[in-house]
Fold each of these.
Amino acid sequence: MHDIGHLLVPGDDAGHGRTGAAAVRELLGTRVARLVEPHVVAKRYLAATDSQHAAKLSASSRRTLVSQGGPMTSTEAVAFEADPEFAAALALRRADDAGKVVGLAVAPLEFWRPVIERVAAAQPRM
Ligand SMILES: [Fe+2]
């Protein structure tokens, strides 16, 4: 779900986290949106603080990192570390990057439908 913003606004590498968060908020809730939005920020954080992680970024991620603001400054990193969803955002980002392996065998999208439906069903409706 975290990269749905790429499908909704093609080419907006810097804004796809915000676009995706806005798109999933009503269906999947605030917490999912709060994790979708900062996955770009988490990439910038890891690029600044984890040289091993940064070295493993895909070619595409390295290219888009520039348009997303580049590695965080130390001031930005300290502010991000104070985010209540900091650890979860980093976990999502690491999973995102770990999945960027050409030819990796993964479950089809349909495999995740029951999980998405359970999360959606648990959200309060207005
Ligand atoms: Fe992304």
Note: The mean pLDDT is 92.
Amino acid sequence: MGIMRMGYAHVRVTDMTEAKNHYASTLGLYETLEDTSPEGNKRVFYKGWDEWDHHSVVLEEGGVGVVKYGWKVEHEADIDDVEAKAKAFGLTVERMSKGDNPEIGDGIRFVTPSEHVFEVYHQATAIGTELGTHNPEVFPRHLVGIGAPALDHSLITTDDVGTMERMLSDVFGFYATERVQTSLDDDHECVGTWMTSNNQIHQLAVIGGPQGKLHHFAFRLEDWNSVGRAADLMTMDDVPIDIGPTRHGITRGQTVYFFDPSGNRNEVFSGGYLAFPDRPANVWTIDQLGKGIFYHDRELNERFTTVLT
Ligand SMILES: [Fe+2]
């Protein structure tokens, strides 16, 4: 299978106390470690209640935006495979040592054509869940706030979506489930792509914009009701909501976009249809982008394209 999922999103926050309140109390993530980075920055590690590995979100104090993403492969040998493909694509790949990230094994690291740092690894400390695997209940009884089960996907920006799509295809074996194009003609330009390696509707989406920026990272919820309840809790906790609850035409996902206290955009996401590589990608043209992104409003808000971290 190669890449199984986005294992972790490591992001920067301006104020750790405020950030902890948001990610732990509102989103309900479980803190698994607090430490100091080699550069001397405070870090906090989190996992969702339905995640087995040590962490899926890392907050690092000092700025905003994304530090890096970790991608977990199914087999140890997949690391070598991805490394060979990344080199063949022309990327500069370095080896990452066990312990470079707490509780994560060795692997590789490279900077993508979009100027994001990707790490690829296989081993992570499995700390398990409260439910376990033996006759498990369906959710933990004492969830906090939204109680997000898991990290789901991210959306990043780049000035060359086509090259990034090709890299994700050639190096990660991803395929596009949805695309936004300048036209349906053969000479179209791809300005947005939603990509996955499995049946998840997308693991990473890429849209046109500045290099190296974060648009949002998203947490998976169970259904529409959970998305609505999440929005209620955001109001209770005075979390700035960007848009929603609403639905995406692209992916059919149900969503709320909101901001953490540092201004990084988060999303809670549910639904989306099952993806298969033999299903042709849905293609949206730019004139219908409003409906594609916000299916009910049918138009983008200005923040969608301007607020990035
Ligand atoms: Fe999203």
Note: The mean pLDDT is 97.
